[in-house]
Amino acid sequence: MKEILSEFQGEANFFPPLTFQNLDTFRSFTFPYIYLYIILPLFNYKIIPARKKAFQLLNDHLAGRDSSKPLEVLEIGIGGGANLEYYPKNCNLTVVDKNKFFEPYFKQNAKRYPHINYKRTIIQCAENMTEIEDNSFEVVVTSYFQCSCDDPEAVVKEIIRVLKPGGKYICMEHVGYPEHTIGLYLQKLVYPIWYLYSNGCTPQRDIAKVIKRAGFSEVICKNYDFGHFMAYLVKHHLIALATK
Predict the structure, then answer these.
(1) pLDDT tens across 67-77, in order?
(2) Distance between CA atoms of 55 and 40, rounded to whole angstroms?
(3) For residue 71, what are the β-bridge partners?
């Protein structure tokens, strides 16, 4: 934590003057700690079963692979690495995350999973992954990421580009309520404040529609009811598996 704080103090330089850019830097710095040590512990007993369902779905569709050969995996918006425990055996992992302040937490966590060969982290927006070649990954993973990216359609377009033919995209996400419901109305109502305090999260997005329209050869979508009394605004969750 001291190393992260030192890096932030050297770059943010937000006193004075306070600008929107420095405010965004401050938010990016503080959000990893809030997410990893407050939000996840509070809801993990609901999130963990969803992660298990998502990766079981992926593993079921990778059942015929030769596990002696490394599986090339890209995870976008990996955060602290909460998915690593559920990865298939013998993975080569590349990470893309626009928030560099997550990286120290992720690297510390990654040491616990020797079945994953961590290759590199690219600090870059997923809407334009210029450092990643076409057709270079067999699996792309996102979890609780599509809610906070700037452009979900552009992200999914890039995912299709970097996947090999037949490659799999596994997505786990909280999504918007159905149309014409009070839940969707409330999500839209609180969105401006929610966005500001949750590092850019947009709770009302229909990510299933984005994935289905993207041009995958096959898309499987499963709904998951979060069912937590404190999480009404993120009650609806999606697990999706898409094949290029």
Answers:
(1) 899 999 999 99
(2) 18
(3) 91
